[in-house]
Amino acid sequence: MKESKIRLIFYVFGILAAVFLSVHLFMLFANTMSFVTRTSSSTISLELKNIYYKISLLLLLFFAYSHGTLGIRRTFYNFYKKKIGKAVIILLWLTLVPLVYFALLS
Fold this sequence. Notes:
By secondary structure, this protein is an all-alpha fold. It contains five helices and no strands. This is Succinate dehydrogenase. It comes from Sulfurisphaera javensis.
């Protein structure tokens, strides 16, 4: 894939991560609960029963992780050999699988 296309994907994922982060922060702070109540396990489990909020959190995880991984890839591409960068990116993407798996279990 061309570097210009990867850069465009990097920017789009960064913008989408910012959008889903703003949704998350809005859901977190758009109520009158205190911080202790808002971050209690019972409130969090109640919020995660909302499937749309859970999907938005998974999309936030995906876009933020992808944006960060593409940034790390670019750093390795600039300063190290391409093969090392590809191996690191593959390892980073493999760590995303358990994150999504455990997020879906909750």
